[in-house]
Design a protein that fits this description.
The chain is of the alpha/beta class. It has two domains: 2-165 and 353-365, no CATH class; 176-348, Rossmann fold (3-Layer(aba) Sandwich). Helix content is 39%, strand content 14%. The chain has 14 helices and ten strands. Helix 6 crosses helix 9 (255-264), helix 7 (206-219) packs across helix 12 and helix 10 crosses helix 13 (333-347). The protein is globular, with a radius of gyration of 22 Å.
């Protein structure tokens, strides 16, 4: 049933999409299930929403939940809740006033396009805050929370920040040699890790990764020391164009094996051009592996420049290459690893995040 609703929504959006590259970056939420009468919802003292898209809840379903009178916590994992349908607005700031003229995502943008209609539906729910039950909006990052505070839909709602939790008993440092032997990776090379569910998705910035590697190849005379590890669905032909030997591991669902891969790498690279608070950075750092990423979204909240990794200038492949080079050849690897692990333990461990949510629940219950 969920898959059927997902397909129905995607087919509907195909009539409006600018191109197939953004097909899953915009959700009209015109299909979904009504859970307002479900026994668990009826019995609950507080409702806690997370990511609700791709055929799970429609905007009409959300309206019924917000009309129930029950206190609601909504943890945002992207911008969709307060936009006209996009999950990340990029440079567009229409969400701060009224969506419409959606050039990045819609085939025929206009003042009354699909994004404007979706924004209006959401405004009927959130426009009159005095009619809402007690609501607490949670951003997983300061970056996302700040965007929500500027939005026309959520600006009058209480908004705070609590990051995603991580199981630090699974994601923990393992000796690199041990991890590499278990994964059949070379023990005498410097390994650069790139990870994404689908590597070539435009938002993951793979083209910047390619360019940075080429720059690195030209700068490092002993570049035979470097090899690449690609985790996720990747294109074999594209991998052949990379300037270093590549170990394409494909999609892996075994969490403990993923933790091994992070531990095996010398550096984790994330050239994404749109991000909230990437779990991949958190996972890598928990395993003692420093990260190199662009200064965008919530990434600067995670990577402390030259303390837990390297923050590169946005969309600068040259600076990204400099960051990789710094981590591999100039930084104190042991100090970086200790700092990265400590950052996760103090901010993203399950115990820390649980405590912060309990405070929110108690506040709403009172």
């Amino acid at each position: 049933m969920v898959f059927g609703r997902f397909v129905a929504e995607r087919l509907y959006f195909r009539l409006h999409e600018k191109n197939k590259e953004i097909r899953f970056a915009f959700s009209p939420a015109n299909t979904g299930i009504d859970i307002s009468q479900h026994p668990l919802v009826q019995e609950a003292d507080i409702l806690h929403l997370h990511w609700v898209n791709f055929g799970f809840l429609s905007i009409q379903s959300l309206q019924k939940l917000f009309s129930s009178g029950k206190p609601i916590v909504w943890t945002l994992h992207d911008m969709w809740a307060f936009t006209g349908g996009c999950h990340h607005s990029g440079d567009c700031e229409h969400y701060q006033n009224h969506c419409g003229n959606c050039f990045p995502y819609l085939r025929n943008p206009s003042p009354d396009d699909l994004s404007a209609k979706i924004w209006q539906k959401k405004h009927k729910i959130f426009g009159e805050t005095e009619k809402l039950p007690p609501v607490q909006i949670i951003g997983c990052s300061e970056w996302l929370a700040n965007r929500a505070r500027k939005s026309s839909l959520f600006k009058n709602l209480p908004i705070s920040v609590i990051p995603n939790p991580l199981d630090t008993n699974i994601f923990k440092p393992i000796a690199k040699a041990e991890a590499r032997v278990k994964l059949n990776l070379p023990v005498d090379k410097k390994l650069i890790l790139f990870a994404a569910a689908k590597v070539t998705v435009i938002w993951k910035g793979f083209s910047y990764f390619q360019e940075a590697l080429q720059i690195l190849k030209e700068q490092i005379s002993h570049s035979t020391d470097i090899e690449l590890v690609i985790l996720g669905e990747s294109d074999g032909e594209v991998n052949k164009t990379l300037p270093f030997k590549t170990h394409a591991l494909g999609r892996i669902t075994d969490i403990e094996k993923i933790a091994l891969i992070y531990s095996a790498a010398n550096v984790f690279t994330i050239p994404s051009i749109q991000e909230n608070l990437p779990n991949t950075i958190m996972e890598a750092m928990a395993c003692g592996t420093p990260a190199v990423g662009f200064e965008v979204g919530g990434i600067p909240e995670m990577i402390e420049h030259q303390q837990t990794g390297f923050l590169a200038t946005y969309k600068s492949a040259e600076n990204f290459a400099e960051g990789i080079k710094w981590v591999l050849y100039e930084a104190d690897a042991e100090v970086l690893a200790e700092n990265a692990r400590k950052k996760v333990l103090e901010n993203y461990s399950q115990e820390v995040v649980k405590g912060r949510y309990l405070e929110v629940y108690k506040s709403l219950a009172e």
